[in-house]
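Hi R.,

Here's the chain you asked about this morning:
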Amino acid sequence: MLDLDFIRDNKEKVKEAITAKGIDLDLNEFLALDEKRRGLIAEVDELRRKQNDFSDRIRKLEGAEKEKELEDMKSLSIDLKGLEEDLRETEKKWHDLYLLIPNIPSPDSPVGDESASREIEKVGEVPKFDFKIKSHIELGRDLDLIDFERGVKTSGFRGYYLKNEATMLHFALIFYALRKMREYGFAPMTTPTIIKEFALVGSGFFPFVKDDIYELANTGKNEKGEVISENLYLAGTSEPALLAYFADTTFDEKDLPKKVCGISSCYRNEVGSYGKDAKGLYRIHEFMKVEQVVLCKADLEESNKWHEQMRQISQEILNDLKLPYRVVQISTGDMGAGKYKMYDLETWMPSREGYGETHSDSNLTDWQSRRLNIKYKTTDNEKKFVYALNNTVIASPRILIAVLENYQNADGSVTVPEVLRPFCGFDEIKK
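And the predicted structure, written out as tokens:
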């Protein structure tokens, strides 16, 4: 979320961000509620002060004067109760709207919808095959690597089984990415996939993509055998859990940046993708991902440096895999509410005859840290909110589409990228 004083002092700039990001929000309504809320807080505080003063006065009074004072306090208590109820209702509406206010996008972010996103770099040669290529679906069937039919039978729409060498490749990619993160000084963490609501609100997934998150119907029982009443959800990425790990933490400036990477299973409802990529591994309900998160000082120059470095790490991975890809700077209307600046890496997938998103790199400045109360103390003992960034290191099995299809051979076999061979123990997949 944005700083309240910033919102009050920069109304037009915030309205521009709301429009640029296509968010359904009337800032004037929020500001009116904000003013009403502040007025109610002042009134409630004043009545509570009078209530506290009453105890001291009543001990010194007797007879009719005491009775009158008691009657006045009964009236004050009734007024206070009404004001407190009004304040609760106003704060609820105010808070719900506050959560919708987006981050201000960077000056160089393309303004507009998805079509405004622009390619800024293209790396690698798109392969030219002298034979009829197969899709990863066909390769998966012919080489006994993927079973969609039984996956759907067991798991439902978008279900799948990875088998044999595909399973080995899947984990080879994960372990290769983890090793890469260790080389760059990122602390690896296996994160919870069942998370509380505050983690999703704090990271900004709620309220914006709530329909894409699976909510658990059976939340289990506590150690006393009592049913747990709070809502629990399946994480769509390890980002919320990594950020929540640091919630309500204040670092010393010398301890920044914090560099962590999470490995986890991920679950997405994909409710808004009906009819899109209904076949294959591109858009599925569950997958694995290695995600990196950086918490740094509240400095745009430093956060931009980390944003570029995180992207370079993902590019290095695609370069190691020798896969053609392009870098796209994402437009304001497609980047999400919390993003200051965002890149996608799109990898060439022959059966799609185009590039498909495989990585996402985002700078959110202090938009998330304000929601999760993650701060640091400067050398001058000033407390500031950290800047938070996140990036996809690898997500599988989507990346397997590119690996299988780009490395296929005329005889139906698939060559394994050289960098993965030490992790999976073979260099070719044959029928």
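The first strand starts at residue 118 and ends at 123.

Let me know if you need anything else.
M.
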